[in-house]
Design a protein that fits this description.
8 strands, alpha+beta, globular, two-stranded antiparallel ribbon, Arc Repressor Mutant, subunit A, Beta-Lactamase, 2 domains, 10 helices
Length: 268
């Protein structure tokens, strides 16, 4: 489940920073401890956390104790390990309520959801991946599709190809070259040249469409949201079922409304 819930970030945490005198390594190690849960499927032991954070067990013990005292880590109900603490959700709320794109997009996407009656999402651009900040569900709800913070690769998602289409072609290709490409379904395109052709098509159309590439049986359409200089900031994703839509009908219905919504957000 972890592979569909979280795409790898473009750069791993680096707490060495030998040439940065302002860098606080203790704070960096604390973030490494919190990041140890990224690929967890359940509670982690102290040894698990030390291994994932790439620090010694003694340092892990002190950091886990400190973060537990502060509410950022908690013991699991069965007392067999550690889980993230609920105080992390305070910081999630801060990001969502203060991010200008999320502020502008929320009322627009609520109206779009009423018009389309399909799943509507907003994701934030992070080079090789997109991180979902708003999730507005349709009648087909799944666990992974309801989580804010769920991240997906840019190479095989509609929103991802839409944002990459707003970059200079060489920059988009460089991002693909850095991204680990693997198949989520039998239809996932993992050839960089073929993905670039899809990105070129998205650049011409103003949107990207994928069928069966990330989720079997799903069609998704993505439109990029950019800043005033045209650099991608985020994307709107609309997801539908191929059991209910043909690709042509879905695109004809969804594309104009989604493009209009993106323009409204950028003009806000």
């Amino acid at each position: 489940m972890s592979s569909i819930l979280r795409a790898d970030p473009p750069q791993p945490l680096d707490i060495q920073a030998e040439d940065d005198r302002l860098f606080v390594r203790a704070a960096g190690r604390a973030m490494q401890v919190l990041s140890a849960f990224h690929k967890a499927t359940g509670p982690l032991s102290l040894s698990n956390i030390a291994a994932e954070a790439q620090i010694d067990r003694s340092a892990a013990q002190r950091l886990v104790h400190t973060l537990t005292r502060l509410g950022y880590i908690r013991r699991s109900a069965d007392d067999r390990g550690y889980l993230p603490g609920i105080r992390l959700l305070d910081h999630t709320l801060d990001l969502l309520r203060l991010d200008p794109i999320v502020q502008k997009a929320t009322p627009v996407l609520l109206e779009l959801r009423k018009s389309l009656r399909e799943r509507v999402d907003l994701s934030l651009y992070d080079e090789t991946r997109l991180i979902y900040a708003l999730r507005m569900q349709s009648k087909r709800e799944t666990f992974y599709a309801s989580l804010v913070g769920h991240s997906v690769p840019t190479y095989c998602t509609a929103g991802g190809r839409a944002v990459l289409s707003q970059l200079p072609r060489a920059e988009a290709r460089a991002i693909l070259d850095r991204a680990p490409m693997h198949a989520f379904t039998t239809k996932t395109e993992t050839d960089a040249a073929a993905v670039m052709r899809a990105i070129d098509e998205a650049r011409e159309q103003g949107f990207a469409v994928i069928c069966d590439e990330f989720v079997q049986g799903e069609i998704a359409l993505g439109v990029a949201i950019t800043d005033r200089d045209g650099a991608p900031l985020s994307a709107i994703h609309i997801g539908g079922s191929l059991a209910e839509w043909t690709p042509e009908a879905f695109t004809a219905k969804v594309a104009p409304l989604t493009i209009e919504a993106a323009r409204a957000i950028m003009a806000g």
